[in-house]
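Render this sequence as a predicted structure.
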Amino acid sequence: MSAETPADPSPFVRLRMQFRAWRGTRPFWAGLLVMIGGVPIMYFPYANLTLGQLTIRMSTTAGAGSLIIGVLLVVLGISLWFQKHVRTFAGTAAILLGLVSLPVSNFGGFIVGFVLALVGGALAIAWAPGVPESTKYGVPEGDAAPAAAAPVIPASAEATDATGAAPEPGGLNMSKSNEPYEPNDLSGTSPVNGANGRHSAG
């Protein structure tokens, strides 16, 4: 194996690079924060705090509501990972559920779940897909450079060419060969052959 041949990455490095590429195409951190925020909201109402011989239950009358809010936050976090097109809806719903958890679930899981849901929802709303490198500067990769613009001929040069050419017999100007032929019009309204009404008939 020569020194110039790169070594194959290990399976761990390959998996880490694949995970990094997958993570960069979706609001990963927003989904993670929303999921983590749902855990304290649904856990604390059913937890028992033991201090020596004293057991404190933190359950409230709205324990079922706390469980529903926590489960919904976890589901929204998973949706942000695998259904990134619903990020605006999921972020808004996470913020609203975090606000509802304040009076329902022990001040939003002792403020921890509320803050995590709020920050995760805001990150989900603010996230936008990245711009590919090929189109970052406005020119897609593979497209040719824009064609050079045709040179602009000054109006004075066009007028000189039109007036300097000698008209053919019968009033036909061969310098404008692409234009249809019309006989001299003495009314002065024909812009094709340059007649302006001052020529005499015959």
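Summary. The chain has a mean pLDDT of 75. The two ends are 95 Å apart (CA to CA).
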